[in-house]
Amino acid sequence: MKKIVLLLVMVLVLLTAAPLYGQEELSRGEFAAMLVEASKMESDLSPADLLVQKGIMKGYPDGELYLDRGITRMEAIALTAKTLGMADSVVPPVEGDISLDKEHWGYTFYSWLNIFGLMDGNPDDLLTEEEGSAFLEKAFSSDPEATPLLENIKTNVANIESLRSVVSGNMKMILRPGAENTEEIPQMDFQMKTIQEMVLPASMHQLSTIIIDIPDMGKQEITSEMYLVDGKIYQQLPLGETGEMQWVLYPEELFPDLEQMMNLEEASSTIPEGMEDYLHYQLLGTTEINGEEVYQLATYGRVDDLDLFFETITEQLGSSQQIMEFLGQGLAVIDSMSLWCIEYIGADDYLTKSADIFLIITLAEEIAGEPNPLEAIQMNMKVEEFNYNEEIIIELPEEAQNATLMDFSELLQEQEQLQEQMPEQEQLQEQSEEEIETEEEIE
Questions:
Q1: pTM, to two decimals
Q2: Which residues have a Cβ under 8 Å from the Cβ of 399 and sit 6 or more positions away?
């Protein structure tokens, strides 16, 4: 009898302890290693040192990383959000219902990942290894349940003959902490609204208004109009010293396959082929907009390899080598881009009804060898209106028919010269640093 009782006690002990197996507390150092692996970062540095180098892990106020300590849910969320391109300066999303004080240091990170369906729960709880692994697996992969939705979207957009959309948004510039002369840069507020009409396969009209609120100068309004007709792009812009509105015509070789660029079926693929490691999507369930049931499809991620990203995009759109060279020169000033987007897709027709888009563009620390006082540009856009298959007539205005042909050759030549100068400036800077080090050694 005693043996039976002892056996029962041992079984109860094992059953009680069983849930603890595989639930070991996860340390900050272990999570750093898991995060680097999940996000596919590559470096000879240790995971923690790599995250510190990239500005993702900053440690505690005393400067220590405390890698042996257990990691809380909030700390894991902050590290992951930063890896995906989210920043401290970003404004929290308007939507979302979370029981967290808005003054909490991690409120912005928590609210963004919560609304994107990536994390919930008590932010102060310590994570187990299993919870940390599951969190990172979801954050850095795409939801397989969204695949059937994407297939239906691609099928239905093929039947679109015309489209009218209205996009509004704002943009703000983030100054680089510690940079010199930032006080000379005015804190301008940018507001924009664009009305776009498309008649497929290759006609478009776009009217854009930008309002810039400049300190001591008030609001300045700039309106731009663009037409795509007969395979040519015309745009009315404020040009010259007077800012007078003039019509210009873009070279046809700059955009050789405009019909492919307007292919909605290709655009509906959500994640461009080859970008699976950078961008991810999650199906967040359904909600209602104007009494209509819609799916919520989230797309998010960070792109560090801008050359690969735009090469992939332009290949799919059939863009020319000239525009690739033009884009390539501009990409030198961009360090990374982070996209956070939620589309609302009709449950009956699988067409987009609206979309919320947030874009973070992180800028390089130097431009042509000079310190860049701007750290990032943040854009918040909302597609407020989608109307499909209405009768739309797009005709080029008479005054645009004599538009001046835009010449990009001088601009491209200047950019090439600038690019050639950059290695020389970098070499001079390295020589200067070596001379300083030599002087310090002599001293």
A1: 0.81
A2: 247
Q: Which of 295, 259, 297 is nearest to 280 (CA)?
A: 297
Sequence-ordered list of residues with C-beta below 8 angstroms from that of 405, at least 6 positions apart, any chain:
248, 249, 251
Q: How far is it, in rounded angstroms, from Cα 237 to Cα 247?
A: 6
Identify the burial level of 127 via C-beta atoms within 10 angstroms of its C-beta, where 0-12 means exposed, 13-18 middle and 19 or more buried: buried
**Residue 298: how many other CB atoms lie within 10 Å:** 20
Task: Give the Cα separation of 33 and 57 in Å (integer).
Answer: 12
How would residue 330 be classed by pLDDT, with cut points 50, 70 and 90?
Answer: low
Contact 41, 304 (CB under 8 A): no
DSSP of 189-227: EEEEEEEEEEETTTEEEEEEEEEEEETTTEEEEEEEEEE
Burial 131-160 (b: 16+ CB within 10 A, else e): bbeebbebbbebbeebeebbebbbebbeee
77 CB burial (10 A radius; 0-12, 13-18, 19+)? buried
User: Closest Cα to residue 40, out of 94, 83, 73?
Assistant: 83
Give me the mean pLDDT over the 99-114 stretch: 89
Quick check: bond before 201 cis, omega within 30? yes
What integer pLDDT is reported at residue 258 of this predicted model? 57
Sign of CA dihedral 110, 114, 120, 122: positive
Give which of 361, 344, 359 is closest to 298, Cα–Cα.
344
Sequential DSSP letters for 378-438? EEEEEEEEEEES--------GGGTTPEEP--HHHHHHHHHHHHHHHHHHHHHHHHHHHHHH
Q: Tell which residue, 282, 304, 308, has the closest CA to residue 295.
A: 282
Rounded distance between C-alpha atoms, residue 419 and residue 118, angstroms: 41
Amino acid (1-letter code) at residue 328: G
CA distance 59 to 442: 35
Q: Which two tokens stand for residue 424?
A: 């020389």
Query: Which residue carries 């709880």 as its tokens?
Result: 125
Can you read off the two tokens belonging to residue 254? 């700059």
From 190, 195, 193, select the one nearest 220 (Cα to Cα).
Answer: 190
The CA distances from residue 249 to 231, 234, 293, in Å, are 11, 5, 43
